[in-house]
Design goal:
Shape: globular
Structural class: alpha+beta
Order of helices and strands: HHHEEEEEEEEEEHEEHHEEEEEEH
Number of strands: 18
Number of helices: 7
Distance between the termini: 45 Å
Strand content: 25-35%
């Protein structure tokens, strides 16, 4: 294929009918579940009476039942994926433009056989991810890190088969292109569309080609401006910020304990890590170095979780200045301000991420940037680009951007 059109090297993209990984995932999980259960269930039943008899004196024998429990869990996942496939079918994605364009638009249409319901929302996420390998030998694992992400709600239209889902995002210049060879460390672009429905939920992911063509889409309305996207963004901002009017501007309080899962996760991980270190310290020949490392790392992560849960931010934006005050469990720690004449712009910062299944949540921050490079955090705990852009526009209406 021509080096000017590297996306055509992938046979799954050549006709612009991009399949999701739904069928492949069904076969992989189903095959693995059959092999796993074929190996573990006969062994369990063969030794079942003996295992039950040993439980009162050897409680660790209960671990034998963990393996068939995992196998049954995989069978349940296989059944869920099968029901989804039977209900929705292939649902290919047609990109518009093709390929997706860095410095232009990434958009597309998915024709489904789901009955049209104007009250239904289909969440769509576009992400650029870095895929890399960590570890050595048998411990090698491939992991993905989100480099850029945006999301919103699909537009819907009637189609001959049911509901046509449409989306279109603006993509800034300078982002990595799709690596068509996927060797070593590489970048990929993914579209994820999901909705909670009666019966099996709709959940589809597509790896797509995205290159710096700057092409525009024929889809007229962008997902960022969709009324449902804006409504969800407003609801999201209101869930983490208490906004009130003040003379000449607004004040936004980002209180403690909002969207707490990042902090709770850090606390649990820290407790587990520190507890492991303590257990090793009390074990025979446990040594001192390894327990100290575990306790130190676990303690730092634990205190980060406590900090995350207890921190709050008070922000005031007027025509004269930007002021922010950091609080911890209600006690003020530090106050900073940026006069209007020193203000340059507001800047969106992609912070920590948290992944659960196919969904990756990015925790965004909004910064006020001064002429000398000074940066003040003026918003946090926002979990969609639409939320942070909405708050950015609100601040700019008082201070200018």
């Amino acid at each position: 294929m021509s080096s000017q059109e590297p996306w055509l090297d992938n046979k799954n993209w050549r006709d612009n009918q991009i399949s999701s990984g739904a069928k492949y995932g069904l076969w992989v999980i189903g095959g693995f579940a059959l092999v796993w259960n074929g190996l573990t269930l006969p062994l369990l039943f063969w030794q079942l009476d003996d295992a039950i008899a040993r439980i009162p004196n050897e409680p660790l024998v209960l671990l034998m039942f963990l393996f068939p429990a995992v196998g049954l869990g995989m069978l349940w996942v296989t059944w869920v994926l099968f029901k989804r496939w039977r209900k929705f079918g292939p649902t290919p994605l047609v990109l518009d433009p093709f390929p997706g364009a860095i410095g232009g638009h990434v958009g597309g249409r998915i024709d489904t056989r789901i009955p049209f319901d104007p009250s239904q929302h289909y969440a769509v996420t576009l992400s650029c991810r870095k895929s890399s390998v960590s570890g050595h030998g048998k411990d090698r694992k491939r992991r993905e890190q989100v480099k850029w992400q945006t999301d919103g709600v699909c537009h819907m239209e009637h189609s001959g088969s049911g509901t046509l889902l449409c989306f279109r995002f603006n993509v800034p210049e300078g982002l990595p292109v799709t690596d068509t060879h996927k060797s070593g460390t590489y970048y990929l672009w993914r579209v994820h569309v999901a909705a909670e429905l009666e019966g099996p939920d709709f959940d589809r992911s597509y790896e797509i080609p995205v290159f710096p063509t700057s092409e525009r889409s024929a889809i007229e309305e962008g997902t960022e401006g969709h009324a449902a996207t804006q409504a969800l963004a407003m609801k999201g901002v209101e869930s983490v910020a208490e906004i009130t009017a003040i003379p000449g501007g607004i004040e936004a309080l980002f209180p403690a304990f909002q969207r707490p899962w990042m902090g709770i996760g850090a606390m649990l991980f820290g407790l587990f890590f520190a507890g492991t270190g303590i257990a090793v310290a009390f074990a025979k020949d446990g040594g001192i170095v390894i327990p100290l490392v575990f306790i130190l790392v676990g303690g730092l992560v634990l205190f980060y979780g406590i900090w995350y849960l207890g921190k709050a931010l008070m922000v005031g934006v007027t025509g004269e200045l930007v002021r922010c005050r950091r609080l911890l469990f209600g006690y003020p720690l530090k106050t900073r301000q940026l006069p209007h004449q020193e203000f340059v712009r507001f800047e969106v910062n992609d912070g920590a991420t948290m992944s659960v299944g196919n969904k990756t949540t990015v925790y965004y921050q909004l910064l006020a940037v001064g002429k000398d490079g000074q940066k003040l955090r003026v918003a946090e705990r926002l979990t969609s680009r639409a939320e942070v852009e909405l708050l950015k526009e609100t601040y700019e209406s008082y201070l200018g951007g």
